[in-house]
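ESCALATION

Customer reports they have been waiting on this structure for their group meeting. Please prioritize. Original submission:
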Amino acid sequence: MAFICLISGQQIRAQEVAILKYEGGGDWYANPTAVPNLIRFCNSNINTKLSEKPKNIEPQSQELFNFPIVFLTGHGNIFFSEEAAKNLRNYLVSGGFIHISDNYGLNDYIRKEMKKVFPELEFEEIPFDHEIYHQNYNFSTLPKIHEHEGKPAQGFGLIYEGRLICFYDYESDLSDGWEDEIVHNNPSEVRSKALQMGANIMAYAFKN
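Update from on-call: job pushed to the front of the queue and completed.
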């Protein structure tokens, strides 16, 4: 199911995905080859027709509503203003989806800022019988691309009125696995698993 939005009374079929350009000084632009590589993988393997170049979008922007899914990663501080938190919430409850990929040092910041967006929700671990793990590819464990702190890779999420609206790969570093091979020298089988899980996330976001 394609993501449909309304602009000035006209239906626009979204064919792009976005990277969230947050404030706070953190490197929102980390892993620059990751999402373009995932888009190419999806277009080749799960029949999406997405623009190969993702857009950079600020969380307070009304353009956010044009995208079926936005991606967030980085290593440093993240800050959502009141306006940004409110807009991001409206986007997510209106049918949008956010994938957060854990880079080293992200966890404390993102949990605090997402509490501004959904103060009533807690991140909960997503069990492996959830459909996000069984779209085009089946997973019984979350791929672990890089070691951070000796913890297992886990998939956490925020669930609003029964719908998974945010998927957070913790201690997994999926987006590092999407990057050009030369960047991290990950083996091809590791990159393949990361891209397949990324494709599942993309497919889930479009369908839900």
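Sent to customer with the following note: The first strand starts at residue 4 and ends at 7.
Escalation resolved.
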